[in-house]
């Protein structure tokens, strides 16, 4: 997974990069295609509305000069309202393309809402010609601001030409303002504004015509070089000088219409240019995206192939290592414990990567070293076991002879003090015999003691207590008459003796050690309870785990010989030994003997009086 993760990082980056390139290029193409939609829903309705407002401004200026123009004003206002309604309806379809466009369209709506107030001032005579012209100018300026806002496009040539065409349209707007101010005699303020409009319009025309494409510039050049345009320039100079030229309205009206038609043709031409460019951009986007996608696919395929091959080699190496750790080495150790010969095949991992081959060889070397170490450890353990067994057997022989001599001496002794000393020596010999048997058990062999017939469990417990140094503290409570199978008696005496001795060692000298037994559903249970300081929960859990699963004997852990002996004996006969806390604060050891080792009491046994608790003593 880490290899795949390392591969996914650059692959994911490539996919993201491909997506970004595709999205950017496609977005550019879509924006060019939306240029036509913007023209239809915003710019063309705005041009039509500008034309109607320009006419209303002109007839309103005429109305202020001649009241007979009232019918024409009313008719023009209806046309302006119709153009305004059309603009509101169409602009609502595209004004949400961006926050800037929405803000500008809302500004136009605000200006359009002023029309009724402007008209009211004109109808009531509260507005003069200069104020009327400037009021309408604010509405037209908002519409041209919208033109400039929506003319933004990613294609630089179209954007530049579109801005120039808008400037040409604004030059025509300045001409219509001159047209309204030039009707009749103008006062000083009107002449001053008129002169500013003339200068601005001429400057805009000069600037725009210099950079327009020939196809867009030629119609404009034809207009400004026409006789009518030259005549209008002369009239402008006369008005600035304070004169009142004849035919001003007719001359400017024809020029305004001509400029308006040229403006619409230029805008339509730019709109038509956007579609082929959009197609080229889209084709380039498809080509670029397809090439990038092919490269991404090839990269993914190559990376996955390399990653999969490397992953398979590593997985094979992992499986081989797990096989060595979980199967081969445990099997080798098990065979060595049984004394069998072992042969370990060489660890081989098929791969094409040098590093993985090296790791495989290293694992093979580790395996061989581990096997050699296991063989050495097995030989060492076997040697130690032989030493334990030989020493224990020799000690058993000597102790057996010693006990025979002690028994003879006990029979011949007549002095009570000497007899007591002989009993003490006999008890010491019994304990030494148990320790010798412990060495035999640790070596893996079986002690020599055994019984051919079942023995009452009470006698088994008494025999175990007799092998403990502090036997005077042991209290054996009455227990049922079940008997223990003869082959198990010796090991059971040793096991219980180890538990009783452990209880006497780890409890105060003045406290008793209670031993009780009773029949259980699955055999017979014997409890050894002391009144010592007890153990913590962690220690109990650790000891119970060792008793349930006998560990390998560790020479360095000689302080727990009794625990090793008990666990070995319990495992040999499927006996379960459990430690738990005692109500008196000490520890209780519970020995559960399986029912296959327990026999019922003898039927012929006569009834005896109830046995009371007794203390085991060895004396005359």
Would you write up a description of this structure?
It is built from 16 helices and nine strands. It is α+β, with helices and mostly antiparallel strands and 620 residues long. It folds into two domains: 1-295, no CATH class; 449-599, Heat Shock Protein 90 (2-Layer Sandwich), CATH 3.30.565. The strands form two sheets. Strands 6-7-5-4-2-9 form a six-stranded mixed sheet. Strands 1-3-8 form a three-stranded antiparallel sheet. The longest helix is centred in the middle third of the chain and has 91 residues, at 248-338. The protein is rod-shaped, with a radius of gyration of 58 Å.
Topology:
Blueprint: H1 2-65, H2 70-91, H3 99-112, H4 115-124, H5 129-150, H6 156-181, H7 188-211, H8 214-224, H9 227-240, H10 248-338, H11 354-412, H12 416-442, E1 455-456, H13 457-466, E2 474-476, E3 483-484, H14 486-505, E4 513-520, E5 523-529, H15 537-548, H16 561-572, E6 576-581, E7 587-594, E8 598-599, E9 614-615
Parallel strand pairs: 2-4
Antiparallel strand pairs: 1-3, 2-9, 3-8, 4-5, 5-7, 6-7
Our count of domains comes out at 2
Measured between the Cα atoms of the first and last residue, the distance is 80 Å
Count every helix, treating DSSP H or I runs of 4 or more residues as helices: 16
Q: Count of DSSP E strands?
A: 9
Going by helix content, strand content and strand pairing, the class is: alpha+beta
Biggest sheet character: 6 strands, mixed
Please state the CA-atom Rg, rounded to the nearest Å. Answer: 58 Å
Query: Low-confidence parts, pLDDT < 50 over ≥5 residues?
Result: 614-620
User: What pattern of helices and strands is seen along the backbone?
Assistant: HHHHHHHHHHHHEHEEHEEHHEEEE
The dominant shape is rod-shaped
Strand content: 5-15%
Mean pLDDT: 78
Q: Largest sheet, order of strands side by side?
A: 6-7-5-4-2-9
What share of residues is helical? over 70%
Pfam families: HATPase_c, NIT
Domain Histidine kinase/HSP90-like ATPase: 490-597
Keywords: Kinase, Membrane, Phosphoprotein, Transferase, Transmembrane, Transmembrane helix
EC number: 2.7.13.3
